[in-house]
Amino acid sequence: MALAAAQGVSAASAPGSADYAGLVDIGGRRMYLECRGRGSPVVVLVGGYKASADDWTVSRKPGLDVFGGVAGFTRVCAYDRPGTPVGESPSRSDPVPQPTSAADAVRDLAALLKAAGLPGPYLLVGHSYGGLIAKLHARIHAADVSGLVQVDALTEGLQDAETPQQWALQRVLAAGEISKAPEDYPDLERMDIDLSFAQVRAAPPLKPMPLLVLSADHGWGPLFPGLIAAGQLPADTPPDFGYVVDAAQAEAQASLAASVPGALHITDTDSGHEIQKEQPQLVIDSIRKVVEAVQLGRTRLLP
């Protein structure tokens, strides 16, 4: 693929419709951005916790990935938040002090889109923590967002659906604090989840727009005993706590889908949490459905 700019070159020198992969100066700090394809609205893919732009090119279906699939019918961009590693390598974006919050991520995304000269309004697609960021961005920058796709998104409704005692454990799991010690990579992304939820609750509500919610239907419940045995979860985690997570997530996803009139909620996904990797065609088709609704000037996906 011919690239319009190399690392360290400002995106301002790259034609807006050309393939691009490089660093964009957002005002004294640089962020990594990739764009491909042509068309409008521009789709912006927002990765999950500690997930780089490359997360949208990984797939369990050979020859099919979300980034490439969406590039076939409109312009699509993905980026690295600070502290999101690429394999075993550090993030391609400049580091920032950690932990960060969803509002920090929204400020970075707004600065990146402006510095890159990408025309809005945008269709935001967020997975997991990226879904929380995309939703907050749409609530703060309402005029700049024309549609949303939420891929098994993290939402403040998860906390609402649990008791304080359950949330005390859930917040550790949701923040990913057990997955990799910060000392292994001091600049690794770490989120302040309670602050992030408070920021979302304080933001204006979503405006009417096409919203499609994809929810995993392969739950965590059966997996927790094995994860505990393998040391991937704390040894004192209740073996049945995965079912608590599943019930809370189901309630949170239903609440998310109800937040905008005419939203489409797809629960039959035949997938675990990483739907974009397990069922990339479903995610591609969902994005296409929202793109078409935006192009037609519709704010609803359902009557």
Describe this structure in words.
The protein is of the alpha/beta class and 303 residues long. The chain has a single domain (23-295), classed as Rossmann fold (3-Layer(aba) Sandwich), CATH 3.40.50.1820. The protein has helices at 66-71, 102-116, 129-140, 157-160, 164-175, 193-202, 224-229, 241-257, 275-278, 280-295, and strands at residues 20-25, 30-36, 43-46, 76-79, 122-127, 145-151, 211-214, 264-266. Strand 5 (122-127), helix 3 and strand 6 (145-151) form a beta-alpha-beta unit. Helix 3 (129-140) runs parallel beside helix 6. The longest helix is centred in the last third of the chain and has 17 residues, at 241-257. The radius of gyration is 18 Å and the shape is globular.
Brief digest:
Helix content is 34%, strand content 14%. It has helices at 66-71, 102-116, 129-140, 157-160, 164-175, 193-202, 224-229, 241-257, 275-278, 280-295, and strands at residues 20-25, 30-36, 43-46, 76-79, 122-127, 145-151, 211-214, 264-266.
Number of domains: 1
Kindly state the number of beta strands: 8
Distance between the termini: 41 Å
* Biggest sheet architecture: 8 strands, mixed
Rg over CA atoms: 18 Å
Extract low-pLDDT stretches. Answer: 1-13, 177-181
Physical arrangement of strands within the biggest beta sheet: 1-2-4-3-5-6-7-8
Structural class by sheet pairing and helices: alpha/beta
Shape: globular
CATH class: Alpha Beta
CATH architecture: 3-Layer(aba) Sandwich
Count of alpha/pi helices: 10
What is the string of helix and strand elements? EEEHEHEHEHHHEHHEHH
CATH topology label: Rossmann fold
Percentage of residues assigned to helices:
25-40%
**CATH H level, superfamily name:** Alpha/Beta hydrolase fold, catalytic domain
User: Into which percentage range does the β-strand content fall?
Assistant: 5-15%
